[in-house]
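Fresh eyes needed here. Have a critical look at this protein's tokenised backbone.
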Amino acid sequence: MKKIFIDDTKLQEVMDIIDNAASLMEEKDCNNDEEARNKLEKLQEKLENLTENKEIDITNFREYWGCISLEEAAKSVLISPPQKENITDGEIKEIIFSIFSDDNIGLVGESEMDYWIRYLELNTGLPNLSDYIFWPGLAGLDENASLEEIANKIIADRK
């Protein structure tokens, strides 16, 4: 399984940008306050330039703290989007076992887990892939399905 690259040299600066933007959006009405809107646009531009990603929308981090840590939010921005590849059944199983086994939960950050779910969605053609893992019953499996059963079902259902 390939390693996800995160440029740690940019992590603190991305964290600062996200945190400043979130604070600004919490304190000011960035839609109607021109000064606040200009500050937010500058933070957006700075984030795009730092990450070389023009697809980032800084407003998505308005209340990041409700569901993710600042560090994980920053890492999610620094991880390149997944690419379409011809992955094998064995690679699918390796990803499922490596990321979602009881031994690894907690060792894999949320941003990395999200990356691998998006990667598998893209490379299996299954847009509801997280259902297989987190809510197996929605994918036609027993609610207590093993990782082996989940991986086999993903492989059987891939498009």
Observations:
- The mean pLDDT is 91.
